[in-house]
Amino acid sequence: MKSFQELARRVKLLIMDVDGVLTDGNIFISATGEELKAFNTLDGHGLKMLQSTGVKLAIITGRDAPGVAHRAKGLGIDYYYAGIHDKRATLAELLETTGLTAEECAYIGDDVVDLPVMIRVGLAVAVPEAPSLVLQHAHYVTGASGGAGAVRELTERIMQAQGTFDALMARYLE
């Protein structure tokens, strides 16, 4: 089996689930039916940094919440798919759109609905709260929880593997 470093070196597209990955998985519903979710700003900045190195970003989520669309737009997510029930078909569409291979993609998920994508991409990542079946199919399990820095951890590890992290961090120390 290839190491995380070898798998991460090839990543040109990071695909993410939302609930339980970019959020802690809790969904708050207002009296008017609006869904509210909390996003981690460290994750957001990590995504912007990774994107600045040339890695594209995508979200494939089963829910269709306006707040998530707003957050995706604010982060400059390159490809956003909401209300998706067949993530495998969406992955195929995404690969066709980008011209990338599955091996050039990383995916971070937290539940069994993510497995159809996780088992196809080059780098499958899970958060520690994921069910055991998901953890078994992950090349890497983050130390940080979903919604609490898991995505930031992954973005930094990808940049380190690709040799872009140190130069990017040096800009903050000038």
TrEMBL record:
Keyword Transmembrane on entry: no
Record bears the keyword Cell cycle: no
InterPro entries named among the record's database cross-references: CMP-NeuNAc_synthase (IPR050793), HAD-like_sf (IPR036412), HAD-SF_hydro_IIIA (IPR006549), HAD_sf (IPR023214), KdsC_fam (IPR010023)
Gene Ontology molecular function, alphabetical: hydrolase activity
Keyword terms of this UniProt record: Hydrolase, Magnesium, Metal-binding
Subunit comment: Homotetramer.
Family that this chain belongs to: Belongs to the KdsC family.
Name of protein: HAD family hydrolase
Organism field: Crenobacter cavernae
Lineage: Bacteria, Pseudomonadati, Pseudomonadota, Betaproteobacteria, Neisseriales
